[in-house]
Amino acid sequence: RPKFIANEPGNTMQSFLDCSLQKCDRFIINVAFITRGGLAPLMQTLLDLEAHNVPGQILTTDYLVFTEPAALKILMGLKNIKLKMFCCNGSQKGFHTKGYLFFKDQIVDITIGSSNLTKNAISENKEWNVSFSSSGDGEVYKHILEDFNSLWNSEYSHEINEETLDEYTVLYSENKRLEKEKARVLSESKTVSVEQISLKPNSMQLAFINRLNELR
Questions:
Q1: Furthest-apart CA pair in the chain: how many Å?
Q2: Do the beta carbons of residue 148 and residue 99 sit within 8 Å?
Q3: Is 115:13 a contact under the CB 8 Å cutoff?
Q4: What 8-state DSSP symbol labels residue 27?
Q5: Cα–Cα distances in Å, from 177 out to 164, 166, 174, 181?
Q6: Looking at residue 64, what DSSP letter applies?
Q7: CB contact at 8 A, 104 and 23
């Protein structure tokens, strides 16, 4: 039966993920954001999967530079997991997927919704996630796996190793520094001018501006 998971008492993504990982023969995690807080309650299970050589693929992203380098380093240390990062700067598109696939014999349990692999998203925030089962021949499953493979094999997806992790860590640290600087400017200014904050429209806003110019 399909299951709805909304982080209510006795029905959290944390407990669901922990249970699903324990029972699977193979797993795929495709989420925009990963933090140490999201990994912490699952670590014992992840270590057990490593000990039993249960293979996993995890794809995350540099979107909004939110994923924590420390979390990537933890996952990089697990020998049974293949870890990649989809780089949005090169693709010029955002990346906001939240999907979990757990394989057992000929059945795959698929969970799609709003929960990233962060502490609040799997335990505290109000989230909507739906889990359902499919055979290996299920149409929806085939579409999901096809899309995942296209992302996994994309030219913008890079294996996380010491070199790529160092590069991302620099990007993450610089982003945090800029966030602190913006917060400082805001806190010290009674009136904030555009010159004080670096503003950059996102892709949707750029499309709107271009369309508006065409109409003019």
A1: 64
A2: yes
A3: yes
A4: E
A5: 20, 17, 5, 6
A6: G
A7: yes
Q: What are phi and psi of 206, to 5 degrees?
A: -60, -40
Could you tell me the CA-to-CA distances from 25 to 22, 54, 77, 113, 136 in Å, in that order? Answer: 9, 6, 20, 22, 14
pLDDT in tens, 163-173: 999 999 999 99
**C-beta atoms surrounding 190 within 10 Å:** 4
pTM equals: 0.84
Structure tokens at 127: 């989230």
Question: What DSSP designation does 19 have?
Answer: H
Question: Do the Cβ atoms of 132 and 5 come closer than 8 Å?
Answer: no
Query: DSSP letters along 92-131, please?
Result: TS----EEEEEEETTEEEEEEES--BSHHHHHTS---EEE
Query: How many residues are given for the chain?
Result: 216
Q: Helix, strand or coil for residue 153? A: coil
Q: Which helix (H) or strand (E) holds 39?
A: helix 36-39
If you ran DSSP here, which 8-state letter would residue 77 be given?
T
Q: Could you give the CA distance from residue 85 to residue 154 in angstroms, rounded to a whole number?
A: 10
pLDDT in tens, 14-26: 999 999 999 999 9
